[in-house]
């Protein structure tokens, strides 16, 4: 099959790799119809996240059709259209049962193989899905394939980021970073009752989306976000939602948050230490909430909201391309060229 494969720093290839096969009775094989490139793929692409085997099929955002199931898979059948969270989960361990599906004891991340172990990703014609009965959800006719695709990662991750920020009407919130995840965080914050949300980035096309979604945009290349927020809210924000993944934005989040406030960080930060010290955290009575979104848990919970059509999630999709053009898609998304926000790849 064809796939977009990782080959070291800024090198992704569209090439043939072996077709996946069932390896366990609980597996399913999915023929991918649509997949996407995520900010998380860029950490691998740029070499910030190291250790991924060369020739691994990249990506963890995909939807498709079931083409084969293992003998233990009863609830899915060949031909079902399915959506997937970006990591697998069993549905039975204590983490899955408590809703923290991202920490399932059997969890594996799509698109990450190290020392020959792990899972190929969804930027490929076919993908093997372990624990398929729980990992995959059938796509109901009430949502589009594109909505289903975003429901596998960025919609739940944004909602989760806001959820960790303990949203209350009347309080002050800031979202740092207006990529797909930050934009979904803005919508998630409003859905959970926020009334005042500032949104920081340096890319005008992304700030336009932030404003359209109801946030107050701050272009950090033009104005100092700290001054803008503190001029109106002298103590700072009640919570800051970080959706970038580096220490510069995390430090900004720290500077913006008020004493007793929360930083909710979903950005994947590959730095070796936090930018602020234990004493800094102490001095603000800071609550820091960090981690991988339990996407499988939230995608089911958020399905009715997505189906209701209340939010125009798919408006953030800036580019629709073919899988074979994915190398260009990576370069464009990485360089933020051509007002690129979210790249979708079709597998015909
Ligand atoms: P993206 O690269 O499209 O967006 C990042 C945005 O941050 C860009 O618009 C960029 O201009 C902006 N930015 C960079 N530095 C900034 C700064 N100092 N201040 C303000 N804005 C700044 O990526 P994305 O797809 O939106 O993903 C965002 C982050 O979320 C990534 O780190 C990704 O790995 C992470 N992520 C985490 C989870 C999770 O489960 N926790 C899931 C998905 C993605
Ligand atoms: Zn993702």
Kindly report the name of the CATH homologous superfamily of the largest domain: Medium-chain alcohol dehydrogenases, catalytic domain
The chain-level structural class is: alpha/beta
CATH architecture of the largest domain: Alpha-Beta Complex
Average predicted local confidence, pLDDT: 98
Anisotropy-based shape: globular
Helical run tally:
12
Low-confidence stretches: none
- Our measurement of the CA-to-CA distance between the termini, rounded to an integer number of angstroms, reads 12 Å
Say what the CATH topology of the largest domain is.
Quinone Oxidoreductase, Chain A, domain 1
Radius of gyration: 20 Å
Q: What is the number of strand segments?
A: 17
Sheet-strand content, in percent, reads 15-25%
What is the H-and-E element order? EEEHEEHEEEHEHHEHEHEHEHEHEHEHE
Ligands and ions found = nicotinamide-adenine-dinucleotide, zinc ion
The number of domains: 2
| Fraction of helical residues | 25-40%
CATH class of the largest domain: Alpha Beta
Oligomer: single chain
Query: Sheet with the most strands?
Result: 7 strands, mixed
Describe the structure.
The radius of gyration is 20 Å and the shape is globular. Strands 3, 4, 5, 8, 9, 16 and 17 form a seven-stranded mixed β-sheet that branches. A six-stranded parallel β-sheet has the order 12-11-10-13-14-15, with helices on both faces. α5 packs across α6 and α5 packs across α11. It is of the alpha/beta class and 348 residues long. Helix content is 29%, strand content 25%. It starts with a strand and ends with a strand. It folds into two domains: 205 residues, Quinone Oxidoreductase, Chain A, domain 1 (Alpha-Beta Complex), CATH 3.90.180; 136 residues, 3-Layer(aba) Sandwich (Rossmann fold). The mean pLDDT is 98. Zinc ion binds next to loops.
């Amino acid at each position: 099959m064809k796939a977009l494969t990782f080959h070291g720093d800024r090198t992704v290839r569209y090439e043939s790799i072996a077709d996946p096969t069932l390896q366990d009775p609980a597996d399913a094989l999915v023929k991918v119809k649509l997949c996407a490139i995520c900010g998380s793929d860029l950490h691998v692409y740029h070499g910030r996240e190291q250790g991924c085997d060369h020739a691994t099929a990249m990506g963890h955002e995909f939807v498709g059709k079931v083409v084969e199931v293992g003998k233990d898979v009863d609830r899915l059948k060949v031909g079902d259209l399915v959506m997937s969270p970006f990591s697998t989960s069993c549905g039975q361990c204590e983490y899955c049962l408590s809703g923290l599906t991202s920490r399932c004891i059997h969890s594996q991340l799509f698109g990450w193989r190290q020392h020959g172990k792990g899972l190929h990703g969804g930027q490929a014609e076919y993908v093997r899905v372990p624990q398929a009965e729980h990992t995959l959800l059938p796509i109901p006719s009430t949502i589009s394939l594109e909505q289903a695709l975003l429901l596998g990662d960025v919609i739940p991750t944004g909602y989760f980021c806001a959820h960790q920020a303990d949203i209350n009407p009347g309080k002050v919130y800031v979202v740092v970073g207006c990529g797909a995840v930050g934009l979904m965080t803005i919508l998630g914050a409003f859905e959970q009752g926020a009334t005042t949300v500032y949104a920081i980035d340096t890319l005008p096309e992304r700030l336009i989306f932030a404003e359209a979604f109801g946030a107050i945009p701050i272009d950090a290349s033009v104005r100092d976000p700290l001054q803008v927020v503190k001029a109106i809210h002298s103590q700072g924000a009640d919570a800051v939602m970080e959706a970038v993944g580096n220490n510069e934005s995390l430090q900004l989040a720290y500077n913006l948050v008020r004493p007793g406030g929360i930083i909710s960080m979903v950005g994947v930060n590959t730095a070796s230490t936090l930018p602020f010290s234990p004493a800094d955290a102490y001095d603000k009575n800071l609550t820091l909430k960090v981690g991988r979104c339990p996407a499988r848990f939230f995608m089911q919970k958020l399905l009715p909201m997505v189906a209701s059509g209340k939010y125009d999630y798919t408006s953030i999709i800036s580019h629709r391309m073919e899988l074979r053009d994915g190398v260009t898609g990576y370069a464009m998304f990485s360089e933020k060229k051509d007002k690129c926000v979210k790249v979708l790849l079709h597998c015909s």
